Task: inverse folding
């Protein structure tokens, strides 16, 4: 979805492109833009490069801030038409621009990053130049940051696609030209054009047998994502479920877990601080469960629904990892045949908040490292129980 391009330097070719996807990032986009330019000039001064901001026609003047940021590297601004927000639209424009510039490497960075350094450009670019097609980030995050990643996306990628990609929707990544071309040729669902694009990319890299690795970056420090979790949950989970169902024949016979190679830093910085309000999460969990109770009763296994009802209707919400796996797999099977797929995913939100609350209560006194072990154990359970989903999808 393309409306307008500003290319003051008349860039027509670039070996390396750093892309920044944005919507209302006027207060933050200058910093990652500066750091990207420093990295490109420090490590790849002998190659042609540019920085591309793909924007959703931000009303806060993100465009002006980006174009006014002083850099040695030339910049290009591209925007979607007004009233067409969507991270996926920005990525799609970015991929097309990469092909137009005949670039070897695309490094994509979140436009609100506060922890990016020039070295991130190197840590992402070197693996692509070495022959990899997608580089996912490894960074320290607060144990309660990235709850969609920790409870759904990472376990699905690990458990069903048998790939230990820890940050499958990290937002920061690098891809090769050939993978960018492949992505453009895939069918994009409406939710893929929004926040679903990150999991769409990672899953398609695995399904397409592209070479994947990870790179250590330190800590991820950025704006809190809590305000986005409403639409983000629906869009990410819908895209993930759709990809799982659509490519069932591709993943059903996988078994052994593949561990991607690791580039970049081995020693990560301490994670970003995060304020967590467990009472607010509990309220969201109970309200969402009540609103979707009829649909949950229809789609969840009877024994699980009974157990959950006793928790949500006057009891203590304590969703065990085993119950969470069953709930997610029940909903994936139901998603395949659902007439209203959005309503189905919406109905899972109360259980998602409940599982997040249960994880917080379980790990509140744990260190980040101890909590990480619990997350990995949850992903391993998704893998151990994958036969349950296969049986339901073949019924």
Result:
């Amino acid at each position: 979805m393309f409306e307008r391009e500003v290319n003051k330097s008349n860039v027509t070719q670039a070996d390396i492109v750093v892309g920044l996807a944005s919507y209302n990032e006027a207060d933050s986009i200058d910093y990652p833009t500066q750091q990207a330019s420093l990295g490109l000039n420090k490590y790849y001064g002998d190659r042609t490069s540019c920085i591309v901001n793909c924007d959703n026609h931000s009303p806060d003047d993100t465009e002006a801030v980006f174009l006014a940021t002083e850099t040695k590297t030339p910049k290009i601004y591209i925007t979607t038409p007004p009233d067409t927000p969507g991270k996926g639209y920005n990525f799609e424009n970015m991929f097309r621009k990469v092909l137009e510039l005949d670039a070897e490497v695309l490094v994509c960075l979140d436009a609100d990053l506060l922890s990016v350094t020039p070295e991130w450009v190197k840590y992402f670019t070197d693996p692509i130049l070495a022959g990899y097609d997608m580089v996912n980030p490894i960074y320290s995050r607060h144990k309660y940051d990235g709850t969609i990643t920790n409870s759904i996306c990472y376990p699905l990628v690990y458990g069903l696609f048998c790939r230990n990609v820890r940050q499958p929707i990290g937002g920061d990544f690098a891809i090769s030209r050939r993978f960018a071309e492949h992505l453009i040729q895939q069918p994009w669902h409406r939710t893929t054009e929004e926040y679903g694009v990150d999991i769409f990319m990672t899953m398609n890299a695995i399904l397409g047998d592209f070479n994947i690795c990870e790179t250590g970056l330190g800590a991820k420090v950025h704006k809190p994502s809590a305000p986005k979790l409403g639409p983000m949950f629906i869009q990410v989970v819908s895209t993930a479920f759709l990809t799982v169902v659509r490519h069932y024949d591709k993943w059903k016979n996988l078994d052994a877990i593949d561990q991607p190679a690791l580039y970049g830093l081995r020693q990560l910085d301490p994670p970003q601080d995060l304020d967590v309000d467990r009472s607010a999460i509990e309220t969201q969990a109970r309200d969402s469960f009540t609103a979707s109770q009829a649909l949950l009763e229809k789609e969840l296994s009877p024994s699980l629904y009974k157990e959950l009802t006793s928790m949500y209707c006057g009891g203590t919400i304590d969703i065990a990892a085993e119950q969470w796996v069953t709930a997610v797999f029940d909903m994936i099977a139901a998603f395949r045949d659902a007439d209203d797929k959005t309503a189905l995913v919406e109905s899972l939100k109360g259980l998602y908040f409940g599982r997040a609350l249960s994880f917080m209560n379980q790990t509140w006194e744990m260190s980040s490292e101890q909590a990480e072990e619990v997350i990995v154990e949850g992903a391993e359970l998704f893998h151990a129980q994958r036969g349950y989903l296969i049986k339901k999808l073949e019924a």
